[in-house]
Write a structure and sequence with these properties.
By secondary structure, this protein is mainly alpha-helical. The protein has one domain: Mitochondrial carrier fold (Alpha/alpha barrel). The radius of gyration is 34 Å and the shape is globular.
Amino acid sequence: MTFNALLAALAAVCVLQACTALGAVSSAPTLAPQSLGFFEQQASNYQARVTLRQDRRYLVAKKVAEPEPSVMDKIGQGVKGAIAGSTGFFQAAVSGGLAAAIMFPVDMAKTRMQACAQTEFATAAAQRTYTGTFQTINKVITQEGAANLFRGLGPVLIGSAPEMAVQITAYEMAKDYLTKDGADPKDFKIQFTAGFVSGVSHVAASNPMEVLKVRGQVLGAAGGGLIGAVKDVGFKGLFKGVGACWARDIPFSCIYFPTYSYVKDKLKEKGQPDFVCSMGAGLIAGVLSAAPTTPCDVVKTRLQNPNAVSAGLLETVKTMYIKEGAGSFFVGWQPRVGRVAPYLALSLTGYETLKGLGAYMDENKPIQKMLGIYEEPKKGRR
């Protein structure tokens, strides 16, 4: 038997088995139900295609019938959206700027202590130029004048407002996005993720300000004005130490916001006033988030110190550990905690106060009523 004959025989066997199987399903010579189902399915598919074409024609006709918004309408919608979105930004900016100015002398002491430890690492800690918060503040007032306590405040006032605004606004927007499907905004995963987004966004606004602030705080009057400092540093220099800044701010925000929310809720449950809830939660969250992130803040200051040559993030960490020991990573932790905790407590309390004031003004229209231009909204028909 040839190969072709063998294939033909196998094909015949397959056909025979197929026919036998079909015969087992339906041996009657009438039209099988399976055939009816097939044709009915084809008819159903055809009807679905017709319906789809009709729906598409309807949507196209509806789109044509609806007038395209004019350029002025689009501009008006954009202005309304910008005003609505900028309200929270403005509230956060004002509260952040005021809090930064109040706590600036403590921040100056922290920076000088950390920079001094870098340039005087061979000197015993107790013999260094700057050894503590109040000692540093007193030394600056005595030797340089009280005005130098606020040296570097210019870039902070310019940068701290948008810094706090970006931090809070990014947190709020991330939380709103994560809870748009009805998720609990107080859930730890929501709070943690929103804090992470806030920390990432925060660095973009804070790092240039941090570079200029450290320069002014360390050099004092020798640092010159703001414009001269920007020229000396250059655009690339404004982002010096950005890696350490991220390493500090991302975990800080991931700790701070969930803790703030949790403590505030617990204080509310105990019937405390809103002001006490905001301030108390801000202080506790600030301490718990500022203390463990101090090592990254120390490294950041050393990378941005104008009196020292930066060796890079990893090399700085390695050198600090080998030559100075683990304790060098916590230099200035007291003024850092003493500045950050009240700063954020004041910022968030001010933000929530302004937020509540804005809601009151929008609902009650006191200014419009005082000026006599308020009109009662027309009641709709029942």
